[in-house]
Design goal:
By secondary structure, the protein is of the alpha+beta class. It is built from 28 helices and twelve strands. It comes from Iphiclides podalirius.
């Protein structure tokens, strides 16, 4: 039986699947995988492999001597490859900072100083250069630049770190003096006075310098109270969170049928603007192009971290972190295993999805990964319906919870996903009990992830084989990074095979369930010229349950690592709450959308926009709206033409009264006026007010009319832009008039 992607465009489908695994233009993996496929085609081995059950596929490949000999020859050359530390380079960057300071280019100074910090070896590693304290000196240099930029808190953090990294004792007087400047600028005069006084004790008998220090002390205004930093209030789910799925609003429920699988529907009426989902990723990876600009762990733009400067990795110079907290989470979980091979990963051409497939293992560690494998791959009988998603409707539960207490305990465990660098995350576990709880929480969330579709039965043999080759490559890297070092010798081989099979599963489910994470890049105006830039990719256990429609019911944006879904149109109870997987009817015609969805996601879309072949935005005009049938439960619509107004609904036979049509048209006119008001508020950079006006107008429109409607679609897209202003936003700094004149 042919698959949907074979019927539409098999060549394009193959290309779509291939790029989810590796690059078609960069790296060695594409050629390696194709060579393995060519070997597998000999004697029709690949055809017989395609018929093998999923659970036996990896072992079947391992039994093929020809394939394994080829792979082992390649894998034998695997070595750690990454950009390491270099004290000499760090020293050169510090000298460059001194030259740039004289020129007054402080932003350039900061970039150079951060490079000096990131390239510095760990304290004591290279005693020949800087006496082994390159890192402390680099932090000292950067603190000066940050102080000149009036980033007092960040400068203070660098000073504290410099002291921990053995800043030379001869510099202690200058250290406390500079610390006093930082506290003064940060609005803490009392601490500034203490720091100045400590500096005075260390200055010796230099009366001239002491006189200058006394002037600094005298300049302090001790009546100033310390500034209290206010954290922004986080967004919350409308209607509260579901107990069994705390990332999902109570307004929704997850249902299931044989054709569409599991998907979200409205459990109660939903209004435009309602927050329906706030989900943290099970695993997420930063795109390599952003390693130098964003935090590796939380993806925050480093330039936007006012109170701290980029923090280093102890082993490599490839990545940076926004804080010690993010760095420590990464180092104690996944990064220590991935760090030695980052350069090799780039060189292989592996995709970001392949990296996430690895991250799903490295963040969990060997013990938890083997537990996950045992529960969700080896023993497929224990399904997610019986564990996590026990409130799914439409299918009979396979197993029932033993007791009410067990249900409550399971719900509580999922409330706190681990490894999330937001204000809502739990503190890193320190006691053995807390570590055990974190382990259980991860395994519990894995139940959601490993219930997602992989379409393995629809997958061709060559595609499956390539994913096994990638999994073997990544497993080989793990072996060389000591991932299996705590495993008993007689169990290592079995553990390696299990991890390989787990990665194969990851590679399949990520192809259809991952989300691109973006930040909004904007200039001086909040909306004009703003655009989304994709910086990372993640897999969201509950977010992945939303089905696609070409006219989606929600808009998504990202708050840190969390995905947020907000309604862009009202929904009645029972209606599908749809997302959009990329092809939107406003931008792409029916044929293009069907081709994309069939080849990329392996399904045929039958949403209303596809069934009725709605025009794209360019094809629409400001024609009369489609009015809805007076019967609220009827889906019929008609064009309000006074000359040929229907007397009754052709579907449910409810009479169409002219007076009611007049009221409907007046309501639509009122909506148009509110759309214009919303546009003016956006121009004035008042997004909250614009959201209130546009949400009210869109709700009003859907009470009397139906889509498509050009102005309403534009209003919904405007809402999408307004929602995004409360997510990840980076403002591009534009040079001042004086700076422009200097450059010219």
């Amino acid at each position: 039986m042919s698959q949907i992607y074979e019927e539409v465009d098999p060549v394009y489908a193959k290309k779509c699947s291939s790029v989810t695994l590796c690059s078609n233009t960069v790296g060695f993996f594409k050629n390696l995988s194709e060579e393995i496929v060519a070997l597998a085609e000999e004697d029709d081995w690949l055809k017989s492999f395609e018929k093998v059950e999923d659970a036996e596929k990896v072992s079947t490949v391992m039994k093929n001597k020809t394939i394994m000999e080829c792979l082992m020859e390649v894998f034998s050359r695997i070595q750690p490859l990454h950009r390491g530390k270099d004290a000499k380079v760090s020293q050169e960057k510090r000298k460059a900072v001194e030259d740039s300071i004289k020129q007054g280019d402080l932003e350039k100074c900061l970039a150079l100083a951060s490079q000096a910090v990131l390239r510095s070896p760990m304290t004591g590693a290279e005693e020949v250069i800087d006496g082994g304290v390159s890192l402390a000196l680099a932090l000292w240099t950067r603190s000066e630049v940050l102080l000149r930029l009036n980033r007092h808190r960040a400068a203070l953090e660098d000073l504290k770190l410099a002291l921990k990294e053995r800043l030379p004792a001869r510099m202690r007087a200058q250290y406390y003096w500079r610390m006093g400047h930082c506290y003064k600028g940060a609005g803490e005069p009392t601490r500034a006075k203490v720091s100045y006084e400590l500096a005075g004790r260390l200055l010796g008998n230099n009366e001239k310098v002491k006189g200058q220090l006394q002037k600094d002390i005298d300049s302090l205004d001790l009546s100033i109270k310390p500034n209290c930093s206010h954290t922004k209030s986080g967004i919350t789910l409308t209607g509260g969170a579901k107990q069994s799925m705390p990332s999902l609003s109570k307004l929704l429920k997850i249902t299931e049928d044989e054709i569409k699988g599991r998907f979200a529907v409205a459990n109660e009426p939903v209004k435009t603007g309602n927050v329906l989902l706030i989900d943290s990723p099970y695993a997420a990876c930063l795109l390599p192009d952003f390693y130098g600009t964003n935090c590796l762990h939380c993806f925050k733009r480093l330039d936007d971290c006012e109170e701290c400067a980029p923090v280093w990795c102890p082993q490599c110079s490839e990545v940076a972190f926004c804080s010690l907290k993010c760095r420590d989470i990464a180092i104690t979980t996944y990064h220590s295993y991935e760090c030695p091979f980052l350069g090799l990963f780039f060189g292989s051409g592996m995709s970001i999805l392949s990296h996430i497939a690895l991250r799903m293992v490295t963040q969990a560690g060997l013990e938890a990964s083997l537990t996950i494998y045992s529960k969700h791959l080896f023993n497929k009988m224990e399904t997610v319906e019986s564990v996590t998603l026990h409130d799914i409707e439409g299918t009979q539960r396979k197993l029932k919870m033993k007791s009410r207490r067990e249900r409550l305990n399971r719900s509580k465990k999922i409330l706190y996903p681990i490894d999330d660098n937001t204000s809502k995350e739990k503190e890193i576990s320190t006691t053995s009990d807390e570590k055990q709880n974190s382990h259980e929480q991860l395994v519990f969330r894995a139940a959601q992830v490993y219930s997602l579709c992989t379409h393995s039965r629809q997958r061709k043999g060559d595609d499956y084989l390539k994913r096994i080759v990638m999994a073997m490559f990544l497993t080989e890297c793990l072996k060389r990074s000591d991932f299996f070092k705590n495993c008993e010798k007689d169990k290592i081989l079995k553990a390696e095979v299990s991890i390989c099979e787990l990665i194969v599963c990851n590679l399949q489910l990520l192809q259809f369930n991952a989300h691109e994470i973006y930040e909004t890049i904007r200039g001086q105006h909040m909306f004009t010229g703003s655009k989304p830039v994709y910086t990372a990719v993640g897999i969201y256990p509950t977010g992945a349950l939303f089905n696609h429609e070409c006219n989606p019911a929600v808009a998504r944006y990202f708050d840190g690592r969390n995905i947020v879904l907000r309604a862009t149109r009202p929904l009645a109870a029972g209606e599908i709450v749809s997302e959009n997987y990329g092809p939107h009817f406003l931008m792409r015609n029916l044929k293009e959308r069907q081709r994309c969805l069939a080849c990329r996601y392996w399904f045929k879309c039958d949403c209303v926009a596809c069934k009725e072949d709605w025009p794209t935005l360019k094809q629409m005009n400001a024609s009369a709206p489609f009015l809805r049938c007076p019967n609220i439960s009827c889906s019929w619509k008609f064009i309000a033409n006074q000359k040929s107004l229907p007397s009754r609904c052709s579907k449910c036979s409810v009479p169409i009264e002219r007076n009611l049509v007049k009221v409907y048209l007046e309501t639509v006119d009122s909506c148009l006026s509110k759309y214009e008001e919303g546009a003016r508020l956006m121009e004035a950079e008042r997004p909250m007010e614009a959201i209130d006006v546009l949400c009210e107008a869109v709700d009003m429109y859907h009470e009397v009319a139906r889509m498509p409607h050009r102005e309403t679609h534009i209003a919904q897209e405007s809402l999408r832009s307004c929602f995004a202003t409360f997510g990840n936003v980076h403002i591009v700094k534009t040079p001042s008039l004086d700076e422009t004149k200097e450059n010219n």
